[in-house]
Every structure is written in structure tokens, then in C-alpha cells.
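Following up on my earlier thread - several people asked me to post the actual chain instead of describing it. Fair enough. Here it is, all 334 residues.
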Amino acid sequence: MLEISHFSYGWVTPVMAYVMSVTGCLLGLRCTARARSGEGRRGWLIAAAIAIGGTGIWVMHFIAMLGFSIHGASIRYDVPVTLLSAAIAMIVVWVGLSIVATGRWGGWELPIGGTITGLGVGAMHYAGMYAMKSDAIIDYDFGLVALSMVIAVVASIVALWFTLNINGILATCGAALIMGIAVCGMHYTGMASMSAHQAAHASMPHGAGAMQLLAPLMVSVSTVTMVLLIHVGLTEVDEASRISEPVRPEPVRHDPWSLQSSSRGAQANSAVTQRAAAGAGGMTPAAAQNHGLPQQHPEPYQNPEPYQYPQPPLYAPERGAFPPAGGYAPGTGV
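Reply from S.P.:
Thanks for posting it. Predicted structure:
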């Protein structure tokens, strides 16, 4: 049995694979959140499928494959099958998202969509493994293969649940971290099922080398992911800027020389008077008329007689006044 190494470059490839998986899942969750808003739904679902299936799953898979090596054997990649595996990943994710987005399966959207997506992700993984050609004989432990498929289905159901229920940015980041762990766990579980043996009459495999094929493909898909990420960010900023602030009513300006302000003041005083009458147990004239009751008019304001100042006496010694020369007339006061 030949020795297999999954970490030929140390922890560089698994860490990069996990980062790309989290990035793709994060972007896909934001795209699905935009799809739930109702505007451009189909376009956002396609963008989410490219992000999750292309970057979150396929790119993660082949970044991890860069660290895979078989000591004493050569590895090449079949270009058409490798491209087919990328298409499978994006298509199955799009199918799963479309199923859960329609809501026409009687409450079974999540398990059905998750199962289809999980089986498709497993098919992508093993299609990528089939695209790897080697001059060694490769065998698989079917128990671990089945376990990896179960992980893929469960991870897909959880991922689709996240796409339906996650809205906040912190919750989205947490969901993306969990999805990245699930995708990487599925990949390395499937890789652990492999074993290699020396072939008796082995020939040099045909195909492209890992760096010749995978590096350009991964750079292309990652570039598309970054463009989508920038697009999502710009559209969210644009929508936030379109939300207008509530219009506050301007205060009424009273012009002391305006007849309109005076009439408004009179109307306000009239309304206050009517409310005061109603609170005192009475009824306004209009309400009394509607109820057939006699109107109660307040008594008119009686102006008192003007104050009559008393006439001062003609004789006021304190003021230095004297009686007339003829004296007082009896009974007349003069």
C-alpha cells in the first residue's frame, strides 16, 4: 500500500480551503437574503448557487486537493470531468435553493431540497476524485463513503435552513462558519476513504497537472466570487441610501399681523370652550341639537354701570378752598 498525504503543504491548503468555503457560503447567504426581498429573485438565486456551489464547495474541494499526494505515484486531472464537477456543484445548489424558495412541496421543501443538494454535492466530490488520474490503483472504503454522503445531506439541509432564516450580518457570519466546517468535514471524510496500491503494469496518466489546471480555474471562480461580493455590498449600500427619513411637519408660524393666524386662534379658542363645556357636564350646541335637547346658552355678560366718582365738597379746608361769598343755601348745599 502506498502512503497518501492530504497535507503535503502543511496546514496552508486546509486553512485556505476553509476560508474559501466560508467566503462562498457567506456570499451565498447574502444573495439568498436578497432573493427573499422579491426583487430580482431568480438572478440572486443563480448568484447564490455560483457562490455556494462554485466557491464554497468546488473551489474548497480542489484547494484541498492541491495538498493531496501519493508517494511514488503521479497525479493528473481530466479537464472535461473537472469542469463537469464544477457544473454539478452549482446546478445542484441552484436546484435545492429553488425548491425551498417555491414553498410548493407541502412543507417538505427543506428535506427534499437538502437531500437533492447533498447527493449532488457528494456526486461533485467523487466526480472530482474520478477526474484525478494516477498510475496507482485507488480503492475506497464504502463505509466512509456512505458517511461522507450522510454528512453532505445533513450539511445541505442545514445550509438551506440557514438560507431561509438567517438575516442579520452576525448570524450570517456564524452560519457561514458552520457551513464551512460541514463542507470541509464532508471532503476530508471522503478523502479518508481512499487507499492506493502500486500497479503492476502502470502507465503514465494523461491530463493536466494540478497547478496547470486547478490554479487558473480557482482564480477564475474566485474572481467571479469577489465581483459578486462587491456587487452585493454596493446594492445593499444603494438600497440603504434610498430609504428616506420620516418627514417631520413644520411648526405653524403665527404672524401677528395675519388675519389667518387670528382666525386659527379663534377656532382654537372655540374648540377649547366647547371641550370645557362638555367636561363640565354640559353639551355643545351642536351635540344638543343632534340629541334633541334644548340648547343651553350661557347668560350674556352683563357689563356693570360705570363707576361714579363722588364729587368733592365745595368746602375743603385741606385743599385751601373757601365757601362762596354768598354762603350756603339751606337745603341746597350751595
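The two ends are 154 Å apart (CA to CA). That should answer part of your original question.
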